[in-house]
Fold this sequence. Notes:
mainly alpha; 4 helices
Amino acid sequence: FNLAVLWRYLGRFDEADAALANVAERQLRLLGPHHLDTLVTRGQMGQSLTARGKAAEAEGLHREVTALFR
Length: 70
């Protein structure tokens, strides 16, 4: 997770997105969709989408994560 965030800050978006997707898939399977770690990782995926200029996709993901957080 932390490596993926570092890659995003370095502009290595493909690597960051792949790592975040991998972590999120495992967290969903092992921890479930409402676990804080899963939500944080999915939020980071939204941040990555925002950094890539994909605001509409990011907004949808952030709304989904926010709804699960409540």
